[in-house]
Structures are given as C-alpha cells and as structure tokens.
Design brief:
It is built from 13 helices and ten strands.
C-alpha cells in the first residue's frame, strides 16, 4: 500500500507555520479575509469543511489569514495531528478534488470496515471508506480498474471520463510480492464508471450495445483491446487473474490510518 515515505516526498506539508495554540479560542485572525470577514465564523467553518480538499488547500495558500482559518478548523486540526498522511495521499493522487475535510474526518473517526464491520485499519481512497485486510484482498468492491479498462468496458468518451474521480497512483512497491511500479497508473471505481456509462448511453442496454459495436469494429479492423479487457474485468475478481494479495492494483489506492475514538476522549488507536 502507499508508504509514508513516498507521501512525504510527493507532498510535504507546510502546516505548523502558524501556531495552533489557542486556535479554538476567540482570538483575532492575523491579516484580513477581505469580504469573507463579513460572514459569520460558524458559516465560514461549515463552508470550508464541505469544500473539496484541493480547493481548501488553494484557499489556505491565499493569505496568512486564510491559512490560520483553515488550520484552526477542529476537523482539519485532528486530521493533520493524527493522520497527516490522509491529506498527503489525497493531494498526491489527485483525488483531493473529490473529497472534503468533513468526509476525511468522518473516516478518521470511523472504526469499522465498510465491507464486514470488523475493524478496518486501512482507507480505500477512491470511496474514502475504511476496509479490513480480508475485504481489501478478497472483495470486488475494493478492486479498482484502470481508466483505460473503464473506457473500453463502459464505452466512455473523453468528456465523461474527465468527470470521474481518478486516482493517479504513486511509484512504489506494492503487494506481498513486492512488485515495483515506476509509472503512475490512473484508476477509477468500477461501479462509478459503470453508472457513468449507463448515464451516457441512456440505459444498461444502450451501454452494452455500444460496447458490442466497438468490439465488432475492433474485430473487423483487427485492432483494439475491448474483447481482452472485457474478459479481464469480468473474471479477475473471481479467478486466478486477480491473485488477491499478490495483485498490486489492490494496494495502489490504499492507506493505513489510525482510528480517532471520539467516545474515549479522542483516544487514537492503530488497531
């Protein structure tokens, strides 16, 4: 899975330049927020919590006052204090545009795996859900597909593809076979891509018909990956192709994070 050293290299954080001592107290924000200063503080906090992480990071860099305000958000503070790798991972993989601070904090404070309700020490980045190791290596719900596979299987055009949450993997070593990947691979969630295809073509039947047309055109022209990719997608979660814990694709979008137990005085557990 994604290692902390790789994240540190790809996304160093500048948090801490402004002291957070007393950030929860009512004190004067350094600098000026301009027109935003006329909006009630509680409303600004709600807006920032639901802003996607990339936009929030851009806002944070606007001024000293914006950085102070962002760093003073209790949810953001908790993430940076206990799991800064979450911030680094989403910004590094370009998924920051699809997740908010509120969602990240909810995942940090959730203990159970989304697949089986056992403790989930890992975070599946594409859906921002916790997952245990068993579900991570065996469930089809936590096996992403490459963008090219999604485009072929669900007959997605470039405009539709550009709207999908795309995880751009980081170079590193993955799976129990210690497979090294030096290139960055774009991944999407299978179900998200499927629903985008259905919407594009009007129905499941329309999407299937479009895929068959493409496959037939490729067959006649002697080119195209559609038939091969279809076999891979339909079988790799249930056959030897997947290789479960030996499949590096299962680990390229996964991060180990602690659990912040709000019911036990903000106790942090690694599981």
């Amino acid at each position: 899975m994604i290692g902390p050293d790789a994240l540190q290299r790809c996304c160093p954080l500048d948090n801490g330049r402004l002291a957070l001592d007393g950030a929860s107290k009512k004190e004067t924000v350094p600098g000026s927020l301009g027109p935003l200063g006329r909006i009630p503080a509680e409303l600004i906090s709600d807006i920032l919590l639901d802003l996607d992480l990339r936009s929030l990071t851009n806002f944070r860099g606007v001024s000293r006052a914006a950085r102070y305000l962002t760093d003073s958000l209790p949810h953001y503070q908790a993430i940076f204090t206990h799991a800064p790798a979450m911030l680094r991972a989403y910004l590094s993989t370009q998924l920051g545009a699809f997740v908010s601070t509120r969602q990240l904090h909810r995942a940090l404070c959730t203990a159970s795996c989304a697949g089986c309700n056992d403790f989930g020490p890992f975070l599946y980045l594409l859906s921002c859900r916790r997952v245990c190791f068993i579900c991570l290596v065996h469930s089809a719900h936590f096996l992403p597909i490459t963008l090219s596979e999604a485009q072929a299987i669900y007959t997605l055009d470039s405009a539709t593809s550009s709207t999908l949450p795309i995880l751009l993997s980081l170079p590193g070593t993955y799976s129990n076979r210690q497979t090294t990947w030096r290139s960055r691979v774009p991944f999407v969630e299978k179900e998200t891509a499927k629903q985008a295809g259905i919407k594009l073509h009007g129905s499941t039947e329309g999407m299937t018909a479009a895929r068959r047309r493409n496959m037939e055109e490729d067959r006649l022209s002697g080119s195209g990956p559609h038939g091969h990719v279809q076999w891979r997608l339909e079988d790799r979660s249930f056959s030897s192709f997947d290789n479960k814990e030996s499949n590096p694709f299962r680990f390229m979008g996964v991060l180990r994070i602690p659990w912040l137990d709000l019911g036990a005085g903000d106790r942090v557990s690694e599981g």
